[in-house]
Write a structure and sequence with these properties.
- By secondary structure, this protein is mostly beta strands.
- It is built from 1 helix and 7 strands; from the N terminus they run αβββββββ.
- A 7-stranded antiparallel beta sheet has the order 1-2-7-3-4-5-6, with no helix packed on it.
- It starts with a helix and ends in a 6-residue tail after the last strand.
């Protein structure tokens, strides 16, 4: 990604070396991105520092979901697609944060 584009579209955001494009693999976030749509990820984020969309793993499963900290309960996992039920990450579940989503692109193939 050219640095000039980053300055225009993502001012005061991440270093270009920490950015990656990841293809969404299912329709769990279909309100903002569907299967096959790209997401721009800041791979320097390896902890849940604020509510938002993250890329993370639990055991061998990869997820792109919204995460919301719930004090005293854990982390709620939310999908933008209402067909997916919210669920909780509790202290006994090991989560590895791979990055934070900065931007989703939703589009149709031409």
């Amino acid at each position: 990604i050219p640095k000039e584009c980053l300055k225009i579209y993502l001012p005061s955001k991440s270093d270009a070396a920490d950015l990656a494009l990841l293809t969404c693999y299912d329709n769990s976030m279909s309100d903002v991105a569907g299967a096959g749509d790209p997401a721009l990820i800041d791979t320097s984020v390896n902890a849940i520092n604020s509510d938002g969309a993250y890329v993370f793993t639990i055991e061998d499963d990869l997820y792109i979901r919204r995460l919301q900290k719930i004090p005293g309960s854990g982390i709620q996992v939310l999908s933008d697609n209402s067909s997916y039920q919210p669920w909780m990450i509790t202290s006994d579940i090991k989560i590895a944060v791979l990055g934070k989503v900065l931007k989703f692109w939703k589009g149709d193939s031409v």
